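Re: duplicated header lines in exported structure tokens

Our pipeline writes sequence and tokens for each protein into one text file. With two proteins the header for the second block appears twice in some exports. Here is an export where it did not happen, for reference. First protein block:
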Amino acid sequence: MLNFKTTNIALIILLLLIAGFNTRFFVPWYVYAIVLLVYSLVLFWGSYYIGSNFFMKVLCRAGTPAKQIAISFDDGPAPAHTTAILDILKSNNVPAVFFCIGKNITGNETLLKKIAADGHIIGNHSYSHHFWFDLFSTKKMRQDLESMNEQVKKTTGLVPRLFRPPYGVTTPNMKKVMQQTGLTAVGWNIRSLDTVIKDKERLLQKITGPLRPGAIILLHDTSSATLSILPSFIAGARSRGYEFVRLDQLLNIAPYV
């Protein structure tokens, strides 16, 4: 299995073999450079492909034959769209998980309470969602995630257990924080790219085409495009026999501490 540990072991063995070969034959410097370049590319892939489980375990889908799927929203609460999305979900009896950003809760406490009152899960998507979040030290990253959980607890009385890495990037420091805090990392296997794709038909096809049992769909409640296609997506998925279930039911995990 390709992960951080096995990759490092392979790198050490390969470098030792090259060094041993170099004692008898000349090995150009660029051979070492190529090895280190490939190593760097593997680390980059492991960090940015959330389904790789390269640095840490991330739950990206459920291994079930049942036609059950879970829908998730990132980056809220956002007054411009979250309320309308909640109304659509309620009218269609669809449960969801909202991975919220802590700094966005301030001033939107009523909206966060409504998310919980409507029966949806509130997840941790960091407090800051800082651009360089993945480069935070273990201590700073833990403080950030704990600040988010404290904000949710103060507002709703709930303490999230589910965490979605900002930008979907994972690191060794993040693995340590997961171990220290008891948070469970959750990713996705269908990424809508709804912050980029504005064409409604293209966006709908992007999330409908790859539907499979156990899918976790990533959307954003900050996106007007998502708001516009959500009713059609729900209707289309149901017409294909899919059932929307809450993420905790799909993955059989506890959503709160």
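Second protein block, exported in the same file:
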Amino acid sequence: MDLKGKKILITGGHGFLGRHLVEVLLQRGVVREDLSLPAFPETDLRRWEDCAAAVRGRDVIIHLAAKVGGIGFNMERPGEFFYDNLVMGAHLMEAARQAGVRKFVGIGTICSYPKFTPTPFKEDDLWNGYPEETNAPYGLAKKMLLVQADAYRRQYGMNAITLFPVNMYGPGDSFDPARSHVIPALIKKVADAKRDGSDHIVVWGTGKATREFLYVKDGALAIAMAAESYDKPEPMNVGSGREISIRDLVGLICKLMDFNGKVEWDASKPDGQPRRMLDISRIRREIGFEARTDFETGLKKTIDWYYKTEKSGDQTGTP
């Protein structure tokens, strides 16, 4: 599908990933007037009538909107994470079906994979166990997008695809300690320690868990490419193909930020899923996507953006 000239709805279009996706689409020839970027609370996707209004007259839906956060936030609000994400996805896809939308692009999460999945995670492993407990409500709610997409494709012939990305990072991320994921949380922790003259930082867990990260501009490109050229029912992983331990990640961030203090590990706090890294052979084969940004380069750009916006006091602007 050539997206140029198509009326495109992006839920979450004003968020971290959404702003980068808008930029990528504009670079690929989509005009801003064809983009609809509804914002909460004026458009609340938990309400059916808001979903029905949002999809009206649209050709393509890219559903990024989600209630997200780190381990602590997931543990504090499991009911909200399950209900809000489930209802938003279910309402939006049904409204899109009723409105005759030509393509629906659903964005899942690596949290949907079973807790103990052979690494790298293959798409065929998605149903081989229960997700890691701290974020299972979120992961399962997002995985229902895949179930709904498959059901709607079989019954109604709807062109609905589902992508499963790893955690993304980069300029524009949330550094709110209550909601942030691991990379922005660590950057802020180190920056605060340097500002306060502290000789140590405290990090959750043991540091043994591993994660895979994708620079947000690369993730946005993958979504745009899939919207253009992937139409199959099988889910597709979106990642960088690189795994790093949290201990090594902390060491790298401390090095890049020139912090020589001690790292104390709070083993009373959960590590989350033991290992995370995706098999990305399908996305390479199907649409030719490869991550373009070296991890250390991406971290430097994220750190620079954080310092720049922290100084200005405005972390809400366009990255």
